[in-house]
Amino acid sequence: MTFQERLLQLRRQKGFSQEALAERMGVSRQAVSKWESGLANPDINNLVL
């Protein structure tokens, strides 16, 4: 399972929208969308969150 697949699975399992997850992490919704689509990866500080 790839990072983006796992992120999407966990986000849905917890019932978070991309917007809600982004808000909790202090990033934009677009960043979460890019992570889930595989267009970008979070930096190490965001991975810890």
TrEMBL record:
HTH cro/C1-type domain location is: 7-48
Residue ranges of coiled coil: none
Under Pfam families, the record lists: HTH_3
Looking up InterPro entries in the UniProt record yields: Cro/C1-type_HTH (IPR001387), Lambda_DNA-bd_dom_sf (IPR010982)
* Lineage of origin: Bacteria, Bacillati, Bacillota, Clostridia, Eubacteriales
- Give the protein name, as stated in the record: XRE family transcriptional regulator
Q: Which organism is it from?
A: Eubacterium maltosivorans
Against SUPFAM superfamilies, the record matches this protein to:
lambda repressor-like DNA-binding domains
MF terms (GO), sorted A to Z: DNA binding
User: Could you tell me the keywords of this UniProt record?
Assistant: DNA-binding
Q: Does the keyword DNA-binding apply?
A: yes
